[in-house]
Amino acid sequence: MIENVEVAKYVSQFFLNINGELNESIMTVEKGTSPAEYKAYKRGVGYIMYEVFDKILEPLYLRHPVLKPPEWENSKTSPDT
């Protein structure tokens, strides 16, 4: 994964911001669509969020644990799990 800590910090913040935007979009879609549309949208966004975590953030935080948000401490990126 990314060795340069400054670049890693940028990537972490970038994808955490995107994650927040995706969460916000789910709430907006829920309010303005049918249950079936909402379910399909939420599933698609959930897939994207999982892929970002699995392929980008998890390896990044394993390499740079200091960048991992404190609220993620119990996630599988903890070195002792």
Q: Top keywords for this entry?
A:
single chain; 81 residues; 2 helices; 70% helix
Describe the overall structure.
- The chain has 2 helices and no strands.
- The protein is mainly α.
- It has one domain.
- Helix 1 (5-32) packs antiparallel against helix 2.
- The chain is elongated, with a radius of gyration of 15 Å.
- Mean pLDDT is 91; it is low at 77-81.
Helix/strand layout:
Layout: H1 5-32, H2 35-63
Query: What is the total number of structural domains?
Result: 1
Strand content: under 5%
- Give helix and strand order, one letter per element, not per position: HH
The biggest sheet amounts to: none
Quaternary status = single chain
Which segments are poorly predicted (pLDDT under 50) over 5 or more consecutive residues? 77-81
Query: What is the number of strand segments?
Result: 0
Which structural class should the secondary elements be placed in? mainly alpha
Count of discrete alpha- or pi-helical segments spanning 4 or more residues? 2
Shape estimate: elongated
Radius of gyration: 15 Å
Q: State the helicity in percent bands.
A: over 70%
Mean pLDDT over all positions: 91
End-to-end distance: 20 Å
